[in-house]
Amino acid sequence: MKDFYRNLSLKVAALFNWVNTNCDKVDFVVKMDDDVYIDDRNLVQFVQTHQKTNRSKFGSAAGNLWPARDGKWRLIYEDWPWISYPPYFLGPAVLFPSSVIVHIQ
């Protein structure tokens, strides 16, 4: 798969597939951009306080946003004919319990 911005959703789907296939003993998965810093001690503390959470996702969610139809990040109608996007997580980082990834894939 070529590393293009427009392939981002395919890359995330591949990540989830890989996690489901290879990481059956992990409790949480962090998906983050390569230019993001996460304090690992704070992350461990957060995960420990949310260990019982098995269907929640943690990140900045967005919904009812409209695609840009011109400019650098434009999305043409042939690729996305709908008026708005479905709810999704904004980058730069999202934390998923591994039990959620099975249902997203």
TrEMBL record:
Q: What is its EC number?
A: 2.4.1.-
Could you say which enzyme class this protein belongs to? transferase
Matching InterPro entries, A to Z? Glyco_trans_31
This entry carries the following GO cellular component terms, namely: Golgi membrane
Keyword Cell membrane tagged: no
Q: Name one GO molecular function term.
A: hexosyltransferase activity
> How is the protein disposed in the membrane?
Single-pass type II membrane protein
Superkingdom of this protein's organism: Eukaryota
| Localization (cell) | Golgi apparatus membrane
> Quick check: keyword Disulfide bond in the entry?
no
What are the protein's UniProt keywords? Glycosyltransferase, Golgi apparatus, Membrane, Signal-anchor, Transferase, Transmembrane, Transmembrane helix
| One biological process term in Gene Ontology | protein O-linked glycosylation
Q: Which Pfam family is an annotated match for this chain, by its short name?
A: Galactosyl_T
Q: Which family does it belong to?
A: Belongs to the glycosyltransferase 31 family.
PANTHER family annotated for this entry? BETA-1,3-N-ACETYLGLUCOSAMINYLTRANSFERASE, HEXOSYLTRANSFERASE
Q: What is this protein called?
A: Hexosyltransferase
Organism of this sequence: Daphnia galeata
